[in-house]
Design a protein that fits this description.
Helices cover 8% and strands 40% of the residues. It has 415 residues and is mainly beta. The longest helix has 29 residues. The chain is rod-shaped and about 160 Å long.
Length: 415
């Protein structure tokens, strides 16, 4: 085997004996992949003939005796692009929204240039996702995210977050290949805190074209996706405008507000903050006492029912419909709430005036702030008030009238 290196665009290999050769090349700086060339050198007496890639005619020399030039097809190295599925649009984009505990789908599209059979010593996708990946969801597809599955093409290491691709199944010697690595992950609770309302997933691909390549191989530029979530803060006030404690709310996924549609939450550590409960979590609750805030919500519509009302106040007739809509620019979510589309409204006409205020928080522009009013119930006046005297006078007058009518009736009977 002969080897030669060069810092330029060409390299010279000398003293080649007659025979059949396979010429391959790698480029460390440009991360390029060169298609290999089959070379046949034949000497007949004083005549030397060189054939390349199975050609039937010998290639000519460069003008210098016994010096020949072959050009190798070069492709940029492996390129990749990561996307996340937008559940609403049923398409893959750079951003989406999802709540804590929700499942999101990703793909990594890899374009792998043709190279000699099994020449890629390794192809590894490195994922920085902090959310939990479902190992059973990991697959490799041909040509599209919904294409045919290539069995046995990937193994996933949950500890390192690395996907190792089987080079022989995702690359070819004579044609470029496009494959899609797909997988699902659950949005973890760390994506929703007092200052954090998103989860960012960054991916790179590290590969070697030869077993003798540099130890770390070539690494692509990173590609990232972002999953945003939102918050809802609820306060209660009396009809006199004072803060009102003791009101309890239950949230539902449907307007009917039935038990099977109850949304459960977990205390988030901070006072009066909650987040959606993940599967299997203990200490999940379905009743929240105002004032409170819920973090880690998807772009969604949920329904709030006041299940406990402070003593002396009227219970609302129906539920409140809360809608959170994320703002977008150029079809990508910005992470902010859209103040023109996010809203809360009373479903029952009798409750129409109970929503006192609703707006996106000025500082936390991913949080929607709501104030709901409770009104006092009608009650009899307390002892000693003016009303008591009036009732007493009216009662005496009625009794006196009854006595007079009775006495008159008796006199008439006597006559």
């Amino acid at each position: 085997m002969k080897q030669a290196t060069s810092t330029g665009t060409s390299v010279t290999i000398s003293d080649i004996k007659p025979g059949l050769y396979s010429v391959s090349a790698t480029s460390g700086e440009t991360k390029s992949v060169y298609s290999p060339v089959a070379l046949f050198v034949r000497v007949d007496g004083t005549t030397t003939e060189v054939y390349a890639n199975g050609g039937t005619q010998p290639i000519g020399n460069t003008g210098t005796a016994n010096q020949y030039e072959i050009k190798m097809k070069r492709s940029d190295g492996i390129t990749m692009e990561q996307k996340v599925k937008d559940a609403d649009a049923a398409d893959y984009t750079a951003t989406t929204t999802a709540g804590v505990g929700d499942t999101v789908d990703f793909y990594v599209k890899l374009t792998i240039p043709a190279y000699k059979a099994n020449a890629y010593a390794s192809i590894v996708v490195n994922d920085t996702l902090t959310d939990s990946i479902d190992p059973s969801s990991v697959k490799v597809h041909k040509d599209s995210a919904n294409g045919d599955v290539i069995n046995g093409a990937v193994s996933y290491d949950a500890v390192t977050g690395k996907f190792t691709l089987a080079a022989g199944k995702v690359s070819a010697a004579d044609t470029d290949m496009t494959v899609y690595l797909t997988y699902s992950a659950t949005v973890a609770k760390g994506a929703a805190t007092d200052t954090v309302h998103s989860s960012t997933n960054s991916v790179t691909v590290t590969y070697n074209t030869e077993a003798t390549a540099t130890e770390n191989g070539f690494t692509t530029a990173s590609s990232s996706t972002t999953i945003y979530n939102y918050s809802l803060k609820v306060a209660k006030k009396s009809d006199s405008g004072k803060e009102l404690a003791g009101a309890v709310f239950t949230f539902y996924s449907k307007q009917a507000a039935e038990g099977t549609d109850v949304i459960k939450f977990v205390k988030d550590g901070d006072a009066d903050y909650y987040r959606p409960a993940q599967a299997g979590e203990t200490a999940a609750v379905s009743e929240l006492t105002a004032p409170f805030a819920i973090r880690g919500l998807d772009e969604t519509t949920i329904y709030a029912k006041e299940t406990t009302t402070p003593k002396g106040y009227t219970v609302p007739s129906g539920v409140f419909k809360a809608t959170l809509v994320g703002a977008k620019e150029s079809n990508n979510y910005t992470g902010l709430l859209d103040n023109t589309k996010s809203t809360i409204e009373a479903i029952a006409p009798a409750d129409a005036g109970l929503v006192q205020s609703k707006t996106v928080n000025e500082t936390k522009d991913w949080q929607y702030d709501v104030t709901i009013q409770d009104t006092r119930t009608s009650a009899l006046p307390t002892t000693g008030s003016v009303g008591t005297v009036l009732f007493a006078v009216l009662g005496i007058a009625l009794m006196a009238g009854a006595v007079w009518l009775y006495a008159r009736s008796k006199r008439q009977s006597a006559k």
